[in-house]
Amino acid sequence: MQLPSLQGLEPLRIAAGALSVGLLLRGASIYRLAVVAPGILAGLLAGLTLAREFGLAPSTTLAFAACGGVAGALLAWLVERVAVMTAGVLVGLAVATMLVPLVVAHPPWWVVPAGGMAGALVGPMLYRAALPLVTSLVGAFGLAWAAGWAPTPVVIGGLFAAGVVIQFATGGERKGDAAESR
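The structure assignment produced for this chain is given below.
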């Protein structure tokens, strides 16, 4: 898949690049940014694609991309908690359904729902632990797009590795962020 070029749209290129660098290097420590930044980047991309599809002028293209970025940020913020808990429930249900029968021949009826509830509780904690990896990957793709680099495995892998190392070396999340996100 070829992403649309940001040639001639320097304000958008700078915004996407700055956001991507922030995600790549400090995404897990800036929890609010980590939640909305993928939505912003997706919205910018959607707005840019639509504007280009309709053949709009550069200034109108910037407006479309900006509106898409705002809409993407709002959507990401609204669905974040529900998505993390739902993923936790699904993983908990799957684990209970597949692993418990290996240990107990005829598990009681409540084991699978209990696995879902446990997943809802554990899912957000696992999400926080995986945040440096996720934000580094999203930041790597965003930076490659903003810089106009081909998203080859070497480019994405190198940026991803640098982001992960820097985020883990600088301590990941700040102490106030965990309380903020609850």
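Interim note for the steering committee: The helical segments are 10-26, 31-53, 58-103, 111-147, 153-169, 175-180. The two ends are 37 Å apart (CA to CA).
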